[in-house]
Structures are given as C-alpha cells and as structure tokens.
Amino acid sequence: MRDPVKWFGRPQGVKERWVCDLCGLPGNRYCPNRTRELYVPKVTGPVTTEICQVMQKVVVDGKEQIIAVWPSELAAFLHRHGMPVAQVPAYQAQQMAGERYFAPVIQSPVAGAVYIRRHDQLTAQEQQIKLQGATTNRVKRVKWYLDDKLIADSDQPYVPIYISPPAGEYVVTLVDDTGGSDSVVLTVEDYRAISETGSSSAP
Ligand SMILES: [Zn+2]
Fold first, then answer.
1. How high is the pLDDT of residue 108?
2. Domain segments of the chain: what residues?
3. Which CATH superfamily is domain 105-201 in?
4. Cα 143 to averaged position of ligand 1 atoms, centre (Å)
C-alpha cells in the first residue's frame, strides 16, 4: 500500500512564507493580516522582489494611523464593489511629504475616443457622454473641466457625471483635492456632418 502521507513530497526549491492577504505580496511592516503560502525563491519577478505597499503609516491631525492606501483604479474598483475603502482620512494637502499618493485616472471617456451624436434620432439627454474617474481612496473631492471651464465639483469622486457637449474637440481634465490631475482628448462629431461628407465623396 502507498503511504498517503508520502504520496507527494514538496520539491526542495519550494519554500513557505507569509504574505499580505490584501495583495498577495510579502507584507510590509504595517500589514496586520497575513497568510501563509508556498513560493519558489529562485523565480525572480514582482512576487519575489516587491513587498506590499497598500498598508501605510500616515499622520492625521498629528496622530499616526495605519491605513490602506490603494492605487487609483483599484480603489475605484473596490469602492464600486462595495468595499469601504473610502472610509479613510483625507490627505492633508499641506503635509503630504512622504505619504503615498496615486494620481487620478480618467476611465471614461477613453483617450482618443470619438463620440458620434445623432441629433436626428436622439435627444441630447439620450446620448450623454460619461465622465468617470478613479482616484486613490484618500481623495475626497474632484473637479472636472471641459477645456478651461469647470463643469463639476464633486465630493463623490467615484460617481460619474454626464455631459452633452456640441460637436468639437475638447480636453477633459480631472483634478483631485491635492492638485493631481489627468487629461484626455474628447472628440464629438455630429452624425449629419459625417453622413453629408460621406455622400459627397461617394462615387
Ligand atoms: Zn498587500
């Protein structure tokens, strides 16, 4: 009979270690939750060269706290899936030296996207363009600009806004409450202008 305990021996190159159960990398000194995993020390890559950067020590009103600071797109993803990641202290913009920060990211519109609007078929309301941003979870307020014009000032950074601009090329900018920003070019075209051009160039 085969000994059930000895049916599989761990190869010598496979070791055990503690990792952060938030991100799967070895935890930094502030990680409170750790989990045991098997790994291959000889494999070089992020899993052997990096450590968790999520848990960070921050100073809020003179007191140190350990909180999870997420990259912008991960923070937005977790928030949209019901994780309470936004319940952390805001940045104190005057005292951010050494604090972990991730710049905002515009997720919609996608850079370079062209929106074609059909005023012959749809109302302006029915063909609005979504502006959706991701910020790290310590950001509490964002402003949206269309070119240099302020179009929204929101204390809900993850909630999208909708706009209905006339045909034209615009720069959409998202600015967070620390001054970090992201911009994309938005092109809006009118279907009638495109279809006229198309018919005039047809053979
Ligand atoms: Zn981690």
1. 97
2. 14-68, 105-201
3. Immunoglobulins (2.60.40.10)
4. 30
